[in-house]
Amino acid sequence: MDKKCQYSQLIKAEANRLGFLSCGISKAEFLEEEAPRLEEYLKKQRHGKMSFLENYFDKRLDPTKLVEGSKSVISLLLNYYPEETQREDTYKISKYAYGTDYHFVIKDKLKSLLEFIQQEIGEVEGRAFVDSAPVMDKAWAAKAGLGWVGKHTLLLSKQKGSFFFVAELIVDLELEYDTPVTDHCGSCTACIDACPTNAIVEPYKVDGSKCISYFTIELKDELPQEMKGKFEDWAFGCDICQDVCPWNRFSKPHNEPLFNPHPELLSMSKKDWEEITEETFRKVFKKSAVKRTKYSGLTRNISFLKEE
């Protein structure tokens, strides 16, 4: 077995030990297919007020501009599918935000993986990325064979569905590269049909500025009146396109204790949400991604839903 193959197996075994769902590796190079798509997305203003997406266009498409001398992109998936979900008759938050903010959880695991690589293989330079830099996570994961990008533009796996986080280690080490898998969406349009705000403008194209997640998390202004009655009780994020996807029948609960929800969260009723105080907000969402929208943002979203 050659060194590249040996190192790749070693890295995948350690990723598995650290609790990652899957690990795939691709060559660090310019993302040719993604360039025109990203250009169109920005030109058509589908990023709404998320102006940060306009920055670092070149770095977003070329990891060698992001990490000097990089040779490989190690893509990793971490499951967040919960054992239990919120009660039926309540305001909903995205399942990914039930527990501790994923940025912290994954960063620690990636750090451990990089340290392992350096100990076992030698001098390897690299950087860890969790949704926090101009890296096209889904494109890299698809290149590394971890799934295909579905019609809702999320990464999908036949065996694992889509309720997982995607992260990367970009390293200056040559490894054995995986190959992409085929698309298995077929003629299914479940996600497109179910989206209440018509954010999936055509198969494989999403207008981010129409997405419930955009409105409830990213948009800092007042929520647009024409969206009244379309949020289907989502107060932070939205899982509709994932919930209806047939491949998510195969989702299995995660085994990451840090992703377990605060005990109060699952039983909160609409009345509890409507009366939430800043103190309760701080207690229930102490380490959660929900903090991104702040107490003022969450109460804005709930008032908007309450009037529906």
Automatic annotation (TrEMBL):
Catalyzed reaction equations: epoxyqueuosine(34) in tRNA + AH2 = queuosine(34) in tRNA + A + H2O
Cofactor: record remark: Binds 2 [4Fe-4S] clusters per monomer.
Enzyme Commission no: 1.17.99.6
Cofactor: cob(II)alamin; [4Fe-4S] cluster
Binding site for tRNA: 220
UniProt keyword annotation of 4Fe-4S present: yes
A GO biological-process term: tRNA queuosine(34) biosynthetic process
Family matches, as NCBIfam families: tRNA epoxyqueuosine(34) reductase QueG
Protein name: Epoxyqueuosine reductase
The organism of origin for this protein: Salinimicrobium sediminis
